[in-house]
Amino acid sequence: MTLRLCLTVAFLMSAVVANWWLTVLIGIVLIGLFQAYITLILGGVLMDVLFGAPMAPLWGFQYLYTALFLILVGLSWYLHRTLSE
Q: In 3-state terms, what secondary structure has residue 52?
């Protein structure tokens, strides 16, 4: 429980102050160890609220981090469901 709390706080803090790749790395660890899906999606929304901007190469799409974390959650759910059978 303590490890999960520490990783969640580290993830949310890194979403605000760290590079995006560190946040994604901590998010992958959270999914792998604890299946913390809601935390990852909230972190993506937080990053998009703070740093999101429309991107011309993506036709003005501005929710890149939320989409990235939703893809990670979907892949994790699929792999967990497939490998546990």
A: coil
Instruction: Copy the structure tokens of residue 65.
Output: 């981090």
pLDDT higher than threshold 90 for residue 62: no
44, 52 Cβ separation under 8 angstroms: no
Quote the pTM value: 0.84
Is the distance from CB of 72 to CB of 31 less than 8 angstroms?
A: yes
Distance set, CA 12 to CA 27, 51, 59 (Å): 9, 14, 28
85 vs 81: CA distance, rounded Å? 7
Residue 40 CA to chain centroid, in angstroms?
A: 4
Report the candidate in 47, 54, 45 with the shortest Cα–Cα distance to residue 18: 47
